[in-house]
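Attaching the record inline, Q. Sequence:
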Amino acid sequence: MNTAQIIARLRNGDKLHMQLSDGKRVWWFEGPHQNIPEKVITAIIAADDAIMETGDSLFGLIGNSQTWEVKDGS
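Structure, as predicted:
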């Protein structure tokens, strides 16, 4: 899955989820379930202003939200 496909799913209302597992971030969409490599998400966050955290941050740390969505107007 490339960055454009991820952004398209987010624009369609899908939520991107993250959890910590064995000290690493694991990213996925729920329905239909699809795992997303962290390097792809890292590239989207670093290069684009299209996605944002929803505020359910693990340990209150920036970048550790369990749910991410597309920003309005993106």
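The chain has a mean pLDDT of 82. Strands lie at 16-21, 24-29, 34-36, 51-53, 67-70.

More tomorrow.
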